[in-house]
Amino acid sequence: MISSSIPYPHSLCSAKFRCSTTLHRGVSSSSLYTYSLPPAATPPQITKFHGCIAARGKRLHIQLKAAENEVEHEEEEEDFQVVWAVESNYNHIVILDTPKSRLLLLDSCHNVHSMLNKESKWTGSYWDEFATLPPVVPRGPIAIFGLGGGTAAHLMLHLWPSLQLEGWEIDGILIDKSREYFGLRDLEKHTRDGGVLNIHIGDVFSPEAAAISGGYAGIIVDLFAQGKVLPQLQQAATWLELYDKLMPEGRFMVNCGAGEKGHDGSSTDGSWKLNATIRALFEAFPGQVNWKKMPQSAGENYVALTGFLPDLTTWSAAVPDELNSSVNQWRTCNMHGS
User: DSSP code of 2?
Assistant: First the structure.
């Protein structure tokens, strides 16, 4: 198996590969295609792939396998195109376009960090969970740490058009390309109800950065590198420092990534103690951390919410029907790991 790598900006790579897409944990599909990237010095040519990918909003992991002697079950093919590929100071950036969606792949492991569906704002993954936050936080601005291509921002402003979102991203090139290919420019214009996405370039861990007068009503945290949660988020001290950026009764909602393997070699028992980020949150805010684990079809990521668990009946009634059952799956962390 050959790990995929993005050619440097002034090189051209063309070869046949077998592509297997993994929904963060398990293999989903495979396909044979020709991979060809244009030099960055030329206009971003459209390079077509013929293959099948399962892209429903999960943080996908793509690996390339040599096509020789590979015999795989054929699935329905879907054309997808590379519309941009470049290496910034922070990321390997690849943008793919399919008839149904546009995908932002980052890092040498080619995880999908953002997607924009062409027919619906819904993703069927953890990004949809972030849209449940507004009813359980005070009125005020909500920050997104790790804006990426703005997947969560698109859905949140669609459902809650009066929101003031403050999106933070460390990679300016990524934001430029997301404005061009993921519609961020549209979100930077005020809606009829006054909602808007304000974009900031900077390091959210800097004491001077990512803070506003009065604090945020909520902070969505979706910070990954090389397919893993940033190590800072697995330390209680980090969360206590970030807490100063919240207003009173403000909350964090966090994509905590995958769990660790249990004693039997699996992480299927669902205990929050298998996730290092939730353990750090629990250490920082004992008794005020809630968690859920996404189903296998949605990537099996753990998601955390700080503060006392809201009344689930009231919360469920305040969100769109598509999110009702999801809200009812939240539970509070306790020392027994359930």
Answer: B
